[in-house]
Amino acid sequence: MTIYIALLRGINVGGHNKIKMADLRSSLEQLGLQNIKTYIQSGNILFESSEPEETLQKKIHNKIEEGYGINSSVIIRTAEELQQIVSQCPFSDQMISEASTSSKGECLHVALLPKAPSKFNSDKLLTYTHEKELCVINGRDVYLLFYDSIRNSKLANNLKKLEVPATVRNWKTLTKLSLMVEEFNHKRSEK
Predict the structure, then answer these.
(1) How far apart are alpha carbons 176 and 178 in whole angstroms?
(2) Which CATH superfamily is 2-84+176-190 part of?
(3) Residue ranges of domains in the chain
(4) All residues at 6 or more sequence positions from 107 whose CB lies less than 8 Å from its CB, including other chains
(5) Around 14, how many Cα atoms within 13 Å sit in the side-chain half-sphere?
(6) CA angle at residue 174 from 169 to 179, to 5 degrees?
């Protein structure tokens, strides 16, 4: 069984696309997902399954659409991929520290994509440059560092140039999910 993390786009944001996490867990159990855990209300789901990512992505998307009438992108990463995202941050501790002192809110985010954008579309995004908004594209993940704020950020608004659905999570959420994976693995090894 593989440990997966599903990240739903636009769930419980600004009073829209409301889903109670307890209801979501119950719905996903019906798909055969096991050991389901959620983190905060924005659609971060940790679970185990023996099915491949693409199959899970479709099943979860369809279940949410049928059960809640919400058409939400579902981005999936394995536990190993999530650990790599956290361990391979391209920004130095000094850059993050400087950004956090001037940023309004969280300064470090990752946009997670279901597939890597084309080189052409990546280049389109990377043509936007601003000293207070930085990004690094690493396959299916786009690291974003803001010295001001992600809100009203031109860089964040330009993510659509990648022409791939994306869901963005702040670093605090990703590191918490990474810790949940570690706890999950620890409990697994005790059995």
Answers:
(1) 5
(2) SP0830-like domains (3.30.70.1280)
(3) 2-84+176-190, 86-171
(4) 96, 99, 100, 145, 146, 147, 171
(5) 2
(6) 160
Location of structure tokens 């995202």: 85
Give me the helices (H) in 6-153, please.
21-29, 53-68, 79-87, 93-102, 119-126
Cβ contacts of 178-181, under 8 Å, gap ≥ 24: 178/82, 178/83, 178/86, 180/37, 180/39, 180/46, 181/3, 181/5, 181/46, 181/79, 181/82, 181/83
Q: Per-residue confidence of the chain (191 residues) as pLDDT tens digits? A: 999 999 998 776 666 778 888 898 999 999 999 999 999 878 899 999 999 999 999 999 999 999 889 898 999 999 999 999 999 999 999 999 999 998 888 999 999 999 999 999 999 999 888 889 999 999 999 999 999 988 889 999 999 999 999 999 999 999 999 999 998 888 777 76
Rounded (5°) CA angle 71-75-78? 150
| pTM recorded for the entire structure | 0.92
Q: Read out DSSP for 30-61?
A: TTT-EEEEEETTTTEEEEEESS-HHHHHHHHH
